[in-house]
Write a structure and sequence with these properties.
Elements lengths: L1 H10 L7 E4 L11 H15 L3 E4 L2 H11 L6 E3 L25 E9 L2 H14 L3 E9 L7 H6 L4 E3 L9 H6 L3 E3 L9 H4 L3 H8 L4 E4 L3 H9 L3 E3 L3 H14 L2 H12 L11 H10 L1 H4 L1
Parallel strand pairs: 1-2, 2-3, 4-5, 4-7, 5-6, 7-8, 8-9
């Protein structure tokens, strides 16, 4: 996309400045062979010609851009927060819908991780009617070809299809007690570095997240003291967490209250935020 931007600019004979927005680090850019080296050489050359770099997670800088192209571009962090242009309704601590001995566990957004689905299936199988697993979003059937079959095979697991944001978000998160926020599609690489939309959506509606340790998502949860961080093996630690919460749901309520006490700006991007970045990148002499 960055190469296309410069080609379009050249073809149309434009002087338009280019800002490189990177929301994921593709696995091809992480390869150690000649293909990866060639793509990084292209990315680095184009990055030097860009006015600024925008990333959605600080780990993209530390693990990729600072490593391969230190000082190549002015960098800005723009997290995957909710848009400040929309209305999302009132915020309140979750947990009022949590029945004793019952948990509603959600997985929301891009459903692209086969291991995540397997972990949720294991939880559904172990706890039966005590746990309800609710899936909302778009499944990547290229990554999880048996998605529909696995969901259909479990009466306590349900898929609710695509959703609209912000219209459907209040209802989705009102139906959840905790939300799974792990991803292993590119384990050790992009999946460990990203910050998913669901931590901002769920956080706004005070639904505590669960994430694997040693990920940027876990570090975000730790900074905000607002959710559950699990070590490997997740096949054991995730069921153990659920078993503990079925006996004592107090940690869910406590983290939910913590989320409610955080400022809206933690989850919603302030109006004018992107304009400030563009102006400081393209017209720094005016801003200063």
């Amino acid at each position: 996309m960055l190469a296309c931007a410069f080609l379009a600019k050249r073809h149309a004979k434009l002087a338009t400045p280019v800002i490189y927005e990177c929301l994921d680090i593709h696995r091809l850019l992480c390869r150690k062979d000649i293909i990866g080296m060639g793509l990084r050489a292209l990315e680095g050359a184009l990055l030097k010609r860009s006015k600024a770099l925008v990333v959605s997670s600080p780990a993209f800088l530390t693990e990729h851009f600072d490593r391969y192209y230190p000082g190549a571009a002015q960098a800005h962090l723009v997290e995957n927060r909710l848009s400040g242009q929309a209305s999302y309704g009132a915020r309140a601590p979750a947990g009022s819908g949590q029945a004793p001995g019952h948990i509603r566990l959600g997985w929301v957004g891009n459903l692209r991780c086969h291991r995540s689905l397997d972990l949720l299936c294991q939880v559904a199988d172990r706890f039966g009617p005590q746990v309800e697993v609710r899936l909302h979003g778009v499944p990547a059937l290229t990554e999880i070809p048996d998605f529909e079959a696995k969901v259909a095979a479990r009466s306590n697991m349900s898929y609710h299809g695509r959703y609209r944001s912000p219209e459907d978000l209040p209802e989705i998160y009102a139906g959840l007690d905790i939300v799974w926020s792990g991803d292993f599609m590119e384990a050790g690489l992009n999946s460990s570095w990203l910050l998913p939309n669901r931590i901002y959506e769920g956080g706004y509606y005070c639904v505590p997240p669960i994430a694997p340790s040693n990920t940027e998502t876990a570090r975000w949860i730790l900074r905000n003291a607002c959710g559950f961080i699990l070590d490997e093996p997740l096949d054991s630690t995730l069921p153990d967490l659920i078993a503990g919460l079925l006996l004592d749901p107090a940690p869910v309520s406590a983290f939910s209250q913590t989320l409610a006490d955080l400022p809206d700006e933690t989850f919603i991007q302030p109006n004018g935020f992107l304009r400030q970045i563009i102006e400081s990148s393209v017209y720094p002499q005016v801003v200063s």
